[in-house]
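Bench notes, bay 3.
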Amino acid sequence: MKSYPLSRWTAGLGLCGASLVAPVALAATTGHVGVFSEYVFRGIVANGGVAVQGGIDHVGDSGLLAGVWATNTAAFGGSELDLYAGYLHKFSDTVMADVGALYYVLSEDKESPLYDVDGDGTIDQTDLDTLEFFATLFAGPVKLQAYYSDDYVGTDEEAFYYTATYTHKVNDTISVAGQVGYTHGDGAEYFYGDKYIDYSVMLNKTIREGLVFSLGFVDTNLKDEGAFVATEDEPKVMISAKQTFTF
């Protein structure tokens, strides 16, 4: 299958938002802004260099949640805006769950043809905006997440993503997080070239209240060529600084 020559634009779809929402107290509005050495989405890097990302999350007394998140991307010029809403239920101080929907808006996607969606040998004008549904379970240091889309990145095919994260608190200012994820479904496998596993290890250091510096290793087992992954994905070292604040 031919693809528009935007090799390795696979990060597009940020997912730093909703379930996404960390297990915080209800009736809270928080914001965050950060600088990242690369924009990484489910283990894969957008080769665009430094990314500036930020958002606002709100959880009401009833558990209803909503938020917005934005980043620059290497694709289409480009920017991404994520909108999400859902419901968060607190079972105890350490166990919470949320469900909801997440909509990725890629404002520049209409300006560029992408790939041969209908298989007729011509490159189609494609709308990449994607709706995903999510569910998350927070249980102490463990976070389990699942995502589903019935039209993944303009492919008109399904995609599934499951991920688990374990965070170990070393002391009051240092933590280590290990994560593993699994992507599959016809839409995802067309886009990336195959189903695949991603994994990461992150070291987080709180510099002062709300300011966290992170250093980590991210990789996948992805080797096949998809619509946007033209070569084998490579291991990468990531650094970031992120400030969180409460309104």
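Next record in the batch:
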Amino acid sequence: MRTRLSDHVKERLGTFGLMTPSIAQCAIGAALAWIIAIELLGHPHPLFAPISVLICVGVGLGQRLRRVAELVIGVSLGVGIGDLLVSWIGSGAWQLALVVALAMTVAVLLNSGALFVAQAGSSAVLVAALVPGDGGGGLDRMVDALTGGVIGILAVALLPASPFTIAAKHLSGVLDALSTVLERAAEAIEKRDVDLAAEALEQARTTQDAVHEYEQALETAKEITLISPLHWHRKASLARYETAAVPVDLALRNARVLARRTLAALGEASPPPPALAEALREVSEAALLLQLELGAGREPTLARQALLAVAARERPEGLGFSAHVIIAQLRSVVVDLLQATGMEHEAATDTLTPLDEASNEGSRS
């Protein structure tokens, strides 16, 4: 129990460390946008300026440049419809409902993006309920939104999170998950333990979220290197993470099939031999090597060599059907990870020891 609590605390602290730059960007950017809107633009209550910074920067991972465009257009739409209707029908509960419904309806017809629609609706709410009598017109609010968006982009450029750290942390989660699935499957084969095989399968089924988080983190990292001059030199290192994105996703998908077949194989008359468990463990260790080498900013030569050694190994004899499928999927994982190290698909496939037609059934390699 204490170990789980400690791991949870470490995970939360790690997440906080990763998000600290975004929190600083939001806090400093919101204050600057407020000051600029009041002191330079002369707007008495520039609510949309700091709000725009928060939406633009956020505290999560996403596409900020697109957010700015959606933000400004969404605010303009919501403010325009809100100002127009409030000037005709006044403010109140039913007026608020009508203003929000019309603003969001028009937004959906123009762009189904969640941020765009939500921003149009929330802007209409502020116009109809909070600020109709502050003396500021719709144009002022649009300018405030644009000001906040620009400040948000500047905050990302001048106070950036490390794109390399973001990509490394999330790819580490993906490769850790892959390594764990393969390790548990290997242990299940060695011990002839159906429960361990079931655990490996359950672990494999929960890995897709890590892949989606990595893809989103990679987009954010690429965006930071585009916006921030401080990280332009990171583009080469980040390219390795881009190369690995699709192959590690495929590797996890193949690992899920492998885990399912491991569970099935342990119920057959001829269970997988220990030599197969050894191969699974070697690929598991190669995944961790890949994680370490990419994290160090190096070419993943050690991981590639470990994978090539597995690819060149002869298959065990006397295998049942499910064991053949496990080997086929493991070969696919090896090809995927070789591609993640930078090899082309054809070259990676050519490294595999040829299989006869019977053993090749079920393989995609």
